[in-house]
Amino acid sequence: MTNLSKQYNNFSESFSHYVSSTDDVIRKPFYQSLSFDFKGKKLLDMACGDGQDISEYEKRGAQCFGVDASENLIAEAKRNRPNIDFKVGDMRTLPYQDNSFDVVLSKYALGTVEDIGAVFSEASRVLKSGGMFAYLTTHPMRLFMEQPGDVKKDYFTQKDVDMVLFGGAFTITEPSHTFNEFLSPKYFNHFDMVYFSEHHDPQSADLPGRDIYPDFFIVVGKKK
Q1: CATH number of the domain within which 135 lies
Q2: Rounded to an integer, what is the distance from CA 8 to the centroid of its chain?
Q3: Rounded to whole angstroms, how far apart are CA atoms 79 and 138?
Q4: Sign of torsion, CA 204 206 207 213?
């Protein structure tokens, strides 16, 4: 299993710099997808990184909390936003009580675990009835297309895939997934989907002139 905490700890400061300066391709469509009311809502940023998205959520009136697996990114988040309650924790075993939040958001994190269903269950557990759960994550097509060229590609078998971010500044590893894992009864038993979109991210191209295919997708759902 990929050790995400160690992976992002290795380049947390420089990663934060690139996210703040070049992440609008991802940030803009995600924020636009969040068309529901934030005012007065308790919000969990799940896999919050250094907490940069918290500013947007606070502007919309939410009371914000953040959790991430990387100790270094959480330390940076606390330095930048000492008024926010940030915790080190795993998305599959969130350190919060049942029915704690009105909103749970996650950006580029859900696909980094092998068992996505466990994250759906945890997001549902900490959400109040009728709460909103939105996530942006790596598209399965990208993970399939960027499997090593020297081996036969296999969409259905999970394997770790190296991906280039921010025009080559970083390489991270994620386990591959199928769309069935994201849009399965493990999701729909907990949530009603209200929004879905797919997007290309040219700044994450692994090779100049590569084929054009979706790099990430966004789902917004309401807890049943």
Answers
A1: 3.40.50.150
A2: 14
A3: 28
A4: negative
| Residue 69 identity (one-letter amino acid) | A
Bridge partners of residue 45, in order along the sequence: 66, 105
Does the pTM of the predicted model rise above 0.85? yes
**Domain span holding position 109:** 4-223
Distance CA 126, CA 59 (A): 23
Count CA atoms within 13 Å of residue 196 on its CB side: 6
Cα distances (angstroms) measured from residue 78 to each of 13, 75, 111: 13, 5, 25
Q: How many residues does the structure list for the chain? A: 224
One digit per residue, pLDDT tens: the chain, 224 residues? 445 555 665 565 556 555 555 567 788 999 999 999 999 999 999 999 899 999 999 999 999 999 999 898 999 999 999 999 999 999 999 999 999 999 999 998 998 899 999 999 999 999 999 999 999 999 999 889 888 877 789 999 998 888 766 555 677 788 999 999 999 999 999 999 999 999 988 766 555 567 788 989 999 999 99
In DSSP notation, 52-118 reads TTHHHHHHTT-EEEEEES-HHHHHHHHHH-TTSEEEE-BTTB-SS-TT-EEEEEEES-GGGSS-HHH
Q: What's the number of domains the chain is made of? A: 1
> Which whole-number Å values give the CA distances from 201 to 15, 23, 136, 162, 189, in the listed order?
17, 10, 12, 16, 31
Hey, is 143 helix, strand or coil? helix
